[in-house]
Amino acid sequence: MADIRPFKAIRYTEKAGDPENLITQPYDKIDPALQREYYEKSAYNYCRLILPTENNKYETAQQRIQNWLNEGILSKDYEPAFFVSRQEFKLSGKACTRIGLIAALRLYSYGESIVFPHEVTYSEPKTDRLNMLRAVQKDLEPVFLIYSDPDNVTVDFFSEITKTKPGIEVEDPFGVKHAVWRVSDPENLKLLQRAMENKKLVITDGHHRYESALAYRDERRRSEKWTEDSAFNFNMCYMVPVQDKGLVILSTHRLLRDCELTNDILKALNVLFAISEIDPTVEAIESFLKKHGEEHAFSVYNGSKAYGLLLKDENAASELVNASCPKEACLLDVVILRDVVFKHIMKVGKLRMDESILYAESTRNALKKVDAGQAKLAFLVNPINPETVWQIAQKNWRLPEKSTDFYPKPVSGLTMMDISPEEKL
Fold this sequence. Notes:
The chain is 33% helix and 24% strand. It is globular. Strands 1, 4, 5, 6, 8, 9, 10, 11 and 12 form a nine-stranded mixed beta sheet that branches. The two termini are 17 Å apart. By secondary structure, it is α+β, with helices and mostly antiparallel strands. The protein folds into two domains: 257 residues, no CATH class; 131 residues, 2-Layer Sandwich (Conserved hypothetical protein from pyrococcus furiosus pfu- 392566-001, domain 2), CATH 3.30.1760.
């Protein structure tokens, strides 16, 4: 049973200034250049909390939150609420809208089969976020999850609430318009709680933060008295129906830094793939992938030539990947690329991020990296369908790293949740 609760959000006040100068991308999307840019925007930019530049970043974040609360830059709501969050954006010239619910979701271990991961996690980022939780005792950014709503109960509610005036509207530097509605009416709160209670949820973004929150919860439970209503038993989450037409996954392309596309490799590829030479341009590569969106299709670019690859034999490919996983997971494009192309055909050893493999979120950027000599080969792939991610995660099978790029990211800085020991939900 998925237990969601309204919470007393901590939010910026008007005293903080223009929200456009305050909001940020999630902490793990902020590189040093963007970090500097955020710092220059405002003395109260949210980056100063989620990713301070100071050496003692955890203490700095904790002190800033307390100072900003004392100064009236931040304010905690008197009344608990849910929040409906909408993103409006354009993708390939098409207008898209995605709507979800921000709520406090009870933390469930993966073994409870209520919340499911879909990607592998690593210890270093989890340690970082756990240290941040220990210091600030706040959920600073929502974890992004998806759930199924075939009866449109939450979808219809979102449709009605978004006809009213939002509490905040702000556009980020990527041209995405964010709007938030506060929901505090007791009947509406009950409606949403009932609608979500039998749901299963899959994490799309924020695996490390979710697992850090589980670790923090377990620490608090060992160190003091607690009840089921203690706020640290919950995590601030942004939840979107998998049926939402604005739920978009972008491709994440793979670039190999040290491998050449030799004639021998092309011959080996030809055993399992139908190979055709295509124009080495962004437009031609994207056209090929789109045309073959229902097949296992790839493109490879080496700086002067590009080839389209179409898998000829699914059974032969299945034998070369992990036979213990379900077929729909084994035969995902990113798995075929990793296990069949890289490991079996190209004999590539262990791939280490930034050392032997790079990732690019657009075809143009992938080709640019090869042209600039940052990598020798770019392998271009089609994106995974959200429904596929939803189904695979519930089979307890995790995708390779960088398999999904849900777009756009929920911005940080719109809501914060208090999870200090005395806070109850």
